[in-house]
Amino acid sequence: MGFKIVIPARYGATRLPGKPLLEWRGKPILQWVYEAACASGAEEVIVATDDPRIIAVLRPGPDGRPPRAVLTDPSHPSGTDRVAEVTRRAELGWTPRDIVVNLQGDEPQMPPVLIDQVAALLADDARAEIATLCTPVVDLAQFLDPNIVKVVRAADGSALYFSRAPIPWDRDAAGGVAQSSFDSALRHLGLYAYRVAALERITAMAPAPLERLEKLEQLRALTAGMRILVGIAARPPGIGVDTPEDLDRLRATVAPP
User: Fold this and answer.
1) Which among 16, 26, 191, 27 is positioned nearest to 110, based on CA atoms?
2) What stretches in the chain show pLDDT beneath 70?
3) pTM of the entire structure?
4) What is the pLDDT of residues 116-125, one digit of tens each?
5) How far is CA 135 from CA 116, 171, 185, 230, 251, in A?
6) Distance from CA of residue 19 to its chain's centroid?
7) Which of 17, 83, 99, 252 has the lowest tally of Cβ within 10 angstroms?
């Protein structure tokens, strides 16, 4: 099974400007992500960024090959749009059926096994257009946290819905007032595999009403009737860096996963 990886990395993050360049254990966060990508089974790894400063810090991965990075349109509203721009580059020769993994540039503890897993999940189901991963919710605080996205799956593993709200909601356990049960809840991980044609289709659409309401881009695909496979992650993904507090938690860890 062959697949590609594109790592979108934006310099001007609202909550943490210059986030890809922030250091952990002597390396920029983005370098850790790039090395995890190189340690996966990907055929190609490309960093897509809006700023030359990000390209300048990249160093070869474990295999010693020079890193590949491209400048993309700084006006892209999302990392998905940045990835889609890369897939359209004629010199790459990528086909509509090719699989590309969108590996966020702020996931320095992403295990390579999860990158391989999400790509294989999509490759093994010809009817699916997108694949992603989830893990069980571990406590009530996670379940109620609107910054942690929850997902509900069908029996075949396809996504029924994603939400910032606590879903599924146990009516009887909640007693109509306060939720306390989260045994069947699943936390969505922001790691995606797309077929190139699906990525083109999504980025050509206008944002959907549910997407605008929940601020969740994957709801655009669900609203359009696209099939998203959701697998249970083979292992926890580690700490992603979205806020200053996340960076503090990362820097408090002893070693990479």
Assistant:
1) 191
2) 1, 173-179, 254-257
3) 0.93
4) 999 999 999 9
5) 16, 23, 9, 10, 23
6) 16
7) 252
